TrEMBL record:
Residues 662-717 are annotated as: Disordered. It is a multi-pass membrane protein. GO terms for cellular component: membrane. This is AB hydrolase-1 domain-containing protein. PANTHER family: INTEGRAL MEMBRANE PROTEIN, PTH11-LIKE INTEGRAL MEMBRANE PROTEIN (AFU_ORTHOLOGUE AFUA_5G11245). Pfam families: Abhydrolase_1, Fung_rhodopsin. It comes from the Eukaryota. The chain crosses the membrane at residues 386-408, 420-441, 461-487, 499-521, 541-561, 573-595, 615-635. Keywords: Membrane, Transmembrane, Transmembrane helix. The keyword Repeat does not apply. Residues 664-675 have a biased composition (Low complexity). Residues 404-640 form the Rhodopsin domain.
Length: 765
């Protein structure tokens, strides 16, 4: 059937143009593709495209019936394909569409090519750029039917069509005219080939007889035949077309064959991309005989070129940041998809790029730069050196901290426990994420998207980002679990372990949720780098913000967890502050997470490759800061070994010198030669003095399997911690440990290890 909607445009004294619009409305947030049908067909030729949800979700489909077809009519009896092209552009104007892709089948391919020639930049009522963004000719030829084209397999329409032209030429009105079955059968046979079923042939026979009846119908079909017989070739004009051209041709195309398209695609010499794809088994009306292949190709072209347009918008935004323009770009998502001016210019000149730049900024040189791929200014403010240097330096720092932690364990002759293995595992994940960061830098992250980063590189950056995001959150989890395991090993209190379990469980559940969120931020996933694919996406920046907020909250919970226990110890205020400082070193990772949180809001999809760089750089800082914070409380033995080897102990503060200053119950210092008595189990860290009721100092014991020494027996623990008295009063004191003469199962916390003195007052009855 013919189009049920019409619109009035001014060309040729006032044309009534028939059209169809997907979803019956124009959605300005999506790109648009204009569809021009073939000889003696209507908008119904594109039924398969209009019924494809993937296409209609991704773009507006605007099918327009050319002059001589369907519901389109005009006062003038005579017209050409150029008139149909102008009419289609005016239909776009009427509907408020300034930019569109264009697909044409057979003669529709000739018309959309003329549209691209007429509208590389068009001037309308408002100053703007209006253009055909990309072409997709289907089953066509760009030449007229010449002897040369016939020698290469194209048809000769004259013998077939001339008799109809003569039959339909009449000096008098023909109110009873009705197109015959022969014509209807020929149109269907040539166009659909082997796909012409009885049902399909019956549909088009009925449609053509509804359109071409009466005197008006006769004039329309006669002029349509004249246009085909006398059309002009476009070969000498194809080099002027600059937009991308994706040509599809069926291998079973009867009118134009396979040879001519291969030659003619090369004539689009100024096009940014011109390619030909042969569809195996495809007939002349390719969109109807092979809708799956055509729809997929159209979707790919629109998605790819829409990304390109956004890159162009990003370039212009870059110049605007430098106060080089006085306009803003609304892009494909604006009501008119145009450039709006806010300066003094009141009209848009026709010399291409110059209509968007003030003359005082040397736009000729900029246009030349655009033709050669962009200006060097995109590299002058590159963030790539910063990302590379920052990522490399913090990663090396984290790796050094891991090495020092392992050295500290070796120095104390301690086995590696779960917290050590977990932080080593976290470092491994860190290195993998860093590898993806450098891969993104290689693809162009840190450069402006407008000219320096090709579309294919932008897509690769987006793909790398998805994987890196997932690895990043797992890296944070391994680091958090390492710290919780270290707490578990040091603090042997049921309520403390309970809180460690709660926070650890929350962290594990959090990473599971955030992983699924990152994987399915867009459905399908490809929509993340091809934004116009059909599907749904949640807000990407919002997802990052939610992840950053939960990361900061869990970091704070982990850092605050040991503080109450530290302040319950019987220590001098300075020592409590020192221990608090030691456990608070991890607040730097909170700062890194918080700053990264603030950087997230600088990201914009219009210049994604450039604005993504600060976020990625601070991601590397955050990961490494977490590892450094997890290692700092364990490094004292390694640092002591280093200063001992270097022979600089005396020049360093007490933090790195090995001495023991026991503190009595009253708070006064008691200096002993060794800090531990000789009695008690060797390596247990527990001894007794035969000259005092006061028991010796000892470290809080670790789990036995985290040390290199032998576990204490129940009898030794009993002898060390519980005198054989019925009643007693116990006082606990804490002081620093001495160098290597300490229990091998203890971690060295900066400034002081935690040692406990238990005093018993004997009560005799």
């Amino acid at each position: 059937m013919a189009a049920t909607k019409t619109i009035q445009v001014p060309h040729l004294g006032g044309i009534t143009a028939g059209y169809a619009l997907s979803n019956d409305r124009y959605d300005p947030s999506k790109p648009t593709c204009v569809l021009i049908n073939s000889m003696c067909t209507t908008v119904s030729l594109y039924r398969d495209q209009f019924s494809d949800v993937a296409l209609t979700d991704a773009m507006n489909l605007l099918a327009i019936e050319p002059l001589g077809h369907g519901s389109t009519s005009c006062p003038s009896e005579h017209f050409t394909y150029w008139d149909s092209a102008l009419m289609a552009l005016q239909v776009m104007d009427k509907l408020g569409i300034d930019k569109a892709f264009a697909l044409g089948t057979s003669q529709g391919g000739w018309i959309v090519t003329r549209m691209a020639l007429l509208a590389p930049n068009r001037v309308g009522a408002s100053p703007c750029i209006r253009e055909i963004l990309g072409l997709m000719p289907l089953g066509t030829s760009m030449d007229y039917e010449s002897a040369d084209s016939r020698s290469k397999g194209c048809w000769d329409p004259v013998p077939a069509l001339r008799p109809f032209y003569e039959k339909w030429t009449s000096a008098v009105a023909t109110p009873d005219f009705l197109v015959d079955d022969v014509w209807c059968g020929m149109v269907g046979g040539i166009g659909f080939g082997a796909s012409a079923s009885e049902e399909l042939s019956a549909f088009w026979t009925k449609t053509l007889k509804e359109v071409y009846k009466g005197d008006e119908g006769r004039k329309k079909v006669r002029m349509a035949v004249i246009c085909l017989l006398s059309r002009d070739g476009l070969l000498l004009r194809l080099g002027d077309i600059k937009c991308p051209v994706h040509w599809l041709q069926g291998t079973e195309d009867t009118p134009f064959g396979k040879t001519v398209p291969v030659e003619q695609i090369k004539l689009f010499s100024s096009s940014v991309e011109a390619k030909l794809v042969m569809i195996e088994g495809g007939a002349h009306y390719l969109n109807a005989t092979n809708p799956k292949e055509v729809n997929a190709a159209l979707l790919e072209m629109v998605n790819k070129l829409t990304v390109h347009t956004l890159h162009f918008a990003a370039l212009l935004a870059h110049f605007e940041r430098e106060d080089r323009l006085f306009w803003s770009y609304n892009g494909l998502g604006s009501p008119n998809g145009q450039f709006d001016f806010f300066g003094s210019s009141n009209e848009c000149p026709q010399n291409e790029w110059q209509c968007i730049f003030p003359k005082e900024y040397g736009l000729e040189s900029f246009c030349l730069d655009m033709a050669h791929g962009g200006k060097d200014s995109d590299h002058e403010d590159s963030l790539q050196p910063w990302v590379t240097a920052t990522t490399a330096s913090v990663t090396v720092l984290a790796f050094v901290m891991i090495c020092l932690r392992l050295l500290a364990r070796w120095e104390r002759k301690q086995k590696l426990w779960w917290d050590d293995w977990m932080i080593v595992f976290s470092m491994g994940w860190n290195l993998v994420v860093v590898g993806f960061i450098f891969a993104m830098v290689k693809e162009g992250m840190g450069l402006h998207a407008g000219t320096a980063v090709p579309i294919s590189n932008q897509v690769m950056i987006a793909k790398f980002l998805v994987v890196a995001e997932i690895l990043y959150v797992f890296n944070l989890v391994w680091t958090k679990l390492s710290i919780l395991l270290m707490y578990y090993r040091i603090f042997h209190f049921p309520y403390f372990k309970r809180w460690a379990y709660i926070i650890g469980t929350f962290v594990v559940l959090w990473v599971i949720c955030i992983t699924f969120l990152f994987i399915f931020i867009c459905v399908p996933v490809q929509k993340l780098w091809y934004p116009n694919l059909p599907g749904r996406c949640i807000n990407q920046v919002g997802t990052w913000v939610a992840n950053a907020a939960s990361t900061i909250l869990t970091d704070l919970a982990i850092l605050v967890l040991p503080m109450p226990q530290v302040w319950k110890l019987q220590l001098r205020l300075s020592e409590k502050l020192a221990l608090t400082f030691a456990f608070s070193l991890g607040f730097f990772v909170v700062f890194a997470s918080a700053y990264r949180f603030s950087v997230l809001f600088s990201y914009t999809s219009a210049d994604s490759s450039y604005t993504l760089a600060p976020t990625v750089g601070w991601t590397a800082i955050e990961m490494s800061a977490g590892i450094v914070s997890a290692c700092l409380p364990t490094l004292r033995p390694a640092l002591q070994a280093i200063v001992r080897i270097l022979g600089i102990q005396g020049a360093l503060p007490a933090l790195l010198r090995s001495r023991t200053v026991p503190m009595s119950q009253t708070g006064q210092s008691n200096q002993s030669q060794n800090g531990l008595t000789a009695q008690g189990h060797k390596g247990s860290g527990v001894g007794h003095s035969s000259h005092s009721r006061r028991h010796s100092f000892y470290h809080l014991p670790d789990e036995s399997d985290s040390a290199g020494g032998h576990p204490m027996t129940p009898e030794q623990l009993d002898a060390s911690l519980r005198p054989e008295y019925d009643h007693g009063r116990m006082v606990t004191n804490v002081l620093g440990s001495k160098g290597r003469n300490v229990d091998s199962a203890s971690d060295e916390i900066p400034l002081h290890g935690i040692r406990v003195q238990k005093d018993f007052t004997q009560v005799k009855e």
